[in-house]
Design brief:
There is one protein chain. By secondary structure, the protein is mainly alpha-helical. Helix content is 87%, strand content 0%. It contains five helices and no strands. Helix 1 (4-54) runs antiparallel to helix 2, helix 2 (59-81) runs antiparallel to helix 3 and helix 3 (86-108) packs antiparallel against helix 4. It starts with a helix and ends with a helix.
Length: 147
């Protein structure tokens, strides 16, 4: 006994489920991108207004604005390409560590092992960026090679 109608129904339900799932995932994807982008802009505006209220901007404040700029660029690139370049995450980490290093030196004025460790971490992140750039140039992804 063949139940072709049952197989056809199963295929239609499967197709509908995949289509609905894709719509829900895309909707969440765009909602999350807009939320992250809005939160980044909001935080940058609050930081900028705090600098304006202070009457000046320190190097710490400027580096914080660079972190917001890099986060905004990440959201923009991810929105346009649906790919998250790992390099941008590394750039954010390098800027955050640089901000920590400058803040530490300004407040303590005494050289210690913490400064060397933070500088070493920045160097490791810079080397990681170099490796990623070289690997993406030498071994491009299949999607990049098709374009």
């Amino acid at each position: 006994m063949k139940l072709e109608w049952a197989d056809d129904l199963r295929e239609r339900v499967d197709t509908l489920a995949h289509a609905l799932g894709n719509v829900l995932v895309d909707a969440f994807h765009y909602l999350a991108l807009f939320a992250i982008g809005a939160a980044t802009v909001w935080s940058a505006v609050v930081a900028f207004l705090g600098m304006a209220a202070k009457g000046h901007a320190s190097i710490d404040d400027l580096l914080l604005l660079f972190i917001y700029l890099e986060l905004g660029a990440m959201v923009g690139i991810y929105f346009k390409t649906n790919h998250m370049p790992v390099r941008f995450l590394i750039y954010v980490a390098m800027t955050a560590l640089t901000r920590l290093l400058i803040s530490d030196v300004q407040s303590h004025h005494a050289p210690d092992m913490g400064i060397v460790l933070v500088a070493g971490a920045i160097l490791l992140l810079a080397l990681a960026t170099l490796v990623i750039r070289y690997a993406s140039w030498k071994f491009p992804s299949a999607q990049a090679a098709e374009k």
